[in-house]
Write a structure and sequence with these properties.
The protein contains seven helices and no strands. It has helices at about 5-20, 20-35, 45-55, 60-70, 80-90, 95-105, 110-120. The protein is globular and about 50 Å long. It comes from Cardamine amara subsp. amara.
Length: about 120
C-alpha cells in the first residue's frame, strides 16, 4: 500500500483482534504511534487496542490508551466506554470497570449485562 491512512491502520488493527492475535494488534498500534506517517489513532483505533488489551491482560497498555484518549480530547461514546469497561473487567480491575460504568451517559446492552452479573454475584 503506497500510503497508509487512519482507516487502513484501523482495518489491520481490528482484523488482528478478530483473529485473536492480540500481541500483533498491540505491536502494530505501537508502530502506528511511533511512525504512523504522522497519523494519530482515533476512537476506532483505541477500541481495537482496548479489546486486545483485555484479551491479553495488558491493563498497563489499556491505561496508556485511556491517557491518550483523555489528552487528545477524544470523547468516549458508548462503544469506547464499553470497550474500556470490558478491558478493565477482563484484567480483573472491577473497581475501575465500575467507575467507567457509573460514568457512562448511555449504556450498551453489554454494559447493562455486566452490571447485572456483578449484582447477581453479590
Amino acid at each position: 500500500m503506497p500510503r497508509r491512512n487512519v482507516v487502513s491502520w484501523n482495518t489491520i488493527l481490528v482484523l488482528f483482534v478478530r483473529i485473536k492475535d492480540n500481541v500483533e494488534c498491540l505491536r502494530l498500534y505501537e508502530m502506528m504511534m511511533d511512525n504512523g506517517d504522522g497519523l494519530k489513532p482515533n476512537k476506532e483505533s483505541t477500541m481495537s487496542v482496548l479489546t486486545a488489551c483485555g484479551h491479553s491482560g495488558r491493563i498497563d497498555i489499556g491505561k496508556q490508551i485511556l491517557s491518550y484518549v483523555t489528552s487528545n480530547r477524544i470523547k468516549p461514546d458508548m462503544l469506547l466506554s464499553t470497550a474500556l469497561l470490558i478491558m478493565y473487567a477482563k484484567c480483573g480491575a472491577m473497581d475501575m470497570a465500575r467507575e467507567v460504568f457509573d460514568e457512562m451517559e448511555e449504556r450498551s446492552t453489554v454494559a447493562r449485562e455486566w452490571r447485572e452479573s456483578r449484582r447477581d454475584a453479590s
